[in-house]
Amino acid sequence: MKKLVMLTSVLLLALAFTACSSQDDKVIKVGVSFYPFYSADSSKPDILDTIEQQVAEQGYSLEKIVFLNYAEANPALAHSEIDANLIQHELYMNIFNQRSNSNLEIVQPIYHATFALYSSVYNSLDDIEQGETVYIPNDGVNTARALMLLADAGLIELAEGVTFQATTADVSSNPKQLKFVEAPLTAAAGAYDEAGRRLAVMYPTFARSLNLQGDAERLYLETRDAISNAYAVSLAARSDNADDKKIAVLAEALASDAVKDYLANNYSWASTPAF
């Protein structure tokens, strides 16, 4: 009798585990950190809210895993704590893969963020004073992007042939003797604000924290070309799950007209679709 009870318990546990695993297979855990993939204001739907019904029609549900520090979303993905994330472009991902020996890959580009030089003090590039301080990102890949923007604006020159790997050491000409202060992406807006909003290169999602939308305080916009196209904010997964059905469902929804419409209606000042 005891053996029968034990066998029944084992079978019930196995069935419960199978049911739980089956349910998990229908949940897509997506790492998010910033707007427009995550909105702290529940009255303002984000992109994942917009595609939730479309994903549900394919038999899946979305679970947003919010990372206040976006840099934590890649380790979570690499360790299979989430299924995918929406926090980066390919160049940032490649550096993470190299440094951590991980195998993340881009599944679907979503949008090009409008990267810009901001200032509330200067109305033109010519007005910038000698020795002015400019805040730029400090994470390597976005440091290079900021320096390329400043070079394209004609404020500096970079060593010949230097692009995605550029550092301040590669600045070959600096006529205005600009001083570069490197700050985390999440802190750049605050540092810019505290310094009197003189000069900073920022992503719109962080400028938004200062209520800077549209062309407010934008002094120079990054031009769209073959180099800047590599910075498209994208859906990333692991090489061992990138071909899974749930990732395919999510990627299809993120490349839908609904997302194009969302960007056009809610985020056109800060993005252009990348699909």
Report on this model:
The protein is an alpha/beta fold and about 280 residues long. The protein folds into two domains: about 25-115 and about 230-275, D-Maltodextrin-Binding Protein, domain 2; about 115-220, Periplasmic binding protein-like II (D-Maltodextrin-Binding Protein, domain 2, 3-Layer(aba) Sandwich). About 35% of the residues lie in helices and about 20% in strands. The protein contains nine helices and 13 strands. It has helices at about 1-25, 45-55, 75-80, 90-100, 140-150, 185-195, 205, 245-255, 255-265, and strands at about 25-30, 60-65, 85-90, 105-115, 115-120, 135, 155-160, 170-175, 180-185, 200, 220, 235-240, 270-275. The strands form four sheets. A six-stranded mixed sheet has the order 2-1-3-12-4-13. Strands 10-5-11 form a three-stranded antiparallel sheet. Strand 1, helix 2 (about 45-55) and strand 2 form a beta-alpha-beta unit. Helix 2 (about 45-55) packs across helix 8 (about 245-255). It is globular. It starts with a helix and ends with a strand.
Can you tag this structure with a few keywords?
membrane; 2 domains; D-Maltodextrin-Binding Protein, domain 2; palmitate; 6-stranded mixed beta sheet; alpha/beta; ABC transporter substrate-binding protein; disordered N terminus; Lipoprotein_NlpA; 35% helix; 275 residues; 3-stranded antiparallel beta sheet
